[in-house]
Amino acid sequence: MYKSISTQAVHAGENKVKPYHALTMPIVQTSTYAFEDTAALIEHMQRKEDKLPLERDEYGRYGNPTQRAVERKLAALDGGEDGLLYASGMCAITSTILALLSAGDHIVFTDDCYRRTREFCLTYLKRYGIEATMVPMGDYAALEAAIKDNTRMIFSETPTNPYMRILDLEQVVAVARRHGVKVFLDSTFATPCNLRPLEFGVDLVTHSVTKYLGGHNDLLGGVVIGPAGTIARLKEAQGVLGGVPDAHNAYLLLRGLKTLAVRVAKQNENGLRVAQYLESHPKIRCVYYPGLPSHPDHALAAQQMAGYGGVVSFEPEADLEKTSAFIDAMRIPYIGPSLGGVESIIEQPALMSHFTLDKKERLAIGIKDELVRYALGIEDADDLIADLEQALAKI
Ligand SMILES: Cc1ncc(COP(=O)(O)O)c(C=O)c1O
User: Fold this and answer.
1) What's the CA gap between 309 and 335, in Å, rounded?
2) What are residue 71's phi and psi, to 5 degrees?
3) Fewer CB atoms inside 10 A, N or C side of the chain?
4) Rounded CA separation 395/392 (Å)
5) Probe ligand 1: pick from 211, 212, 373, max atoms within 8 Å of CB?
6) Is 112 a catalytic residue?
7) Distance from Cα 88 to the centre of ligand 1, integer Å
8) Buried (b) or exposed (e) across 187-216, using 16+ Cβ within 10 A?
């Protein structure tokens, strides 16, 4: 209905007249819904059995009006028919794969995706008789070669963490179409402001809404967006698997989404400014940011995306300890996992997400001791750069 993402972020999915004439969407904080009488109950159950659109909810695991408002808004932002909200980003990914694949099916996924997704595909799916093949990110010939008669899904991510690799959506969709396989894409790092994967022919998009979409480091959630028929199947499965969001979280997400476009515009600006500054600094060996011409996927990112996002990874000329000293000297960012919120967050993956691996194992997957991931918030770019300047001067 609305063309621009900023207007959609504020208005899409919400009725103008809301209960009690409230301007904001109420938090419908209930686990169950009551019926006026038995006739009303039977009418509802009959509609459900006849697969007619439901006019009310029955039980919290099957739906909630606050949740539905957010789902409609998220679907509009990604240009999809419908969306389904989950308790976390991982819940959205695992529940969707479990709902759509069966024993004997095969999934192909790219190696540079979120480590818990990789773990799920490689270790958990096997236990349910679903085969998984991991292929190198960016190798489209290997992707196509991995497809077999029983392949049902290609799963990938763009941009990836922590090296910000960009997936060529046209190529992946072309491979998938040639073989009648569905593409399921994690677009968390891009957000609908920077990339709308469904417009490229991707079948299903997921986001960890914990990151940019919630945007305030105060909630966990995940969403899947795609054709109404597929979302209906996923909703059926969610009623069984149970990974539902709660109404209060849905409201926080709805509220966070209102400012999505302005937040992401600022984070795109901060990402580019910080990446350019770091690349010009003599104590920085390497910067990974798709907005820099030095990034291997810069041309693709420029063609496919409207902005490059707020995450910059880099390696200072330092060892593990010296890099930690630099991080400790930073005044603005918090040290922690996650990204996409208004507060900047910095981390050294060797000591955070990859702490349990020994150095050899870490290096085998490309995680150097001195690698830093800086997830920029919406602070002022000059302040962020001045902070980096003073911290780098200390090492
Ligand atoms: C790209 C990506 N996908 C999925 C997830 C999982 O999301 P959640 O933490 O909301 O379960 C993360 C979390 O860091 C992520 O970075």
Assistant:
1) 19
2) -60, -40
3) N
4) 6
5) 211
6) no
7) 8
8) bbbbbbbbbbbbebebbbbbbbbbbbbbbb
Residue 319 CA to ligand 1 centre (angstroms): 28
What stretch(es) of the chain map to CATH 3.40.640.10? 5-28+64-257
Q: Which residues line ligand 1 (CB under 6 A)?
A: 88-90, 114, 157, 161, 186, 188-189, 208, 210, 220, 222
Homologous superfamily assigned to 260-393: Aspartate Aminotransferase, domain 1 (3.90.1150.10)
Per the annotation, the verdict on 211 as an active-site residue is: yes
The CATH code of the domain at 5-28+64-257 is: 3.40.640.10
Both tokens assigned to 216:
């305030």
> Does the active-site annotation cover 277?
no
Overall residue count recorded for the chain in this entry:
395
* CA of residue 89 to ligand 1 center, whole Å: 5
* Residue 186 appears among annotated catalytic residues: yes
In sign, the C-alpha dihedral spanning 136, 108, 362, 285 is positive
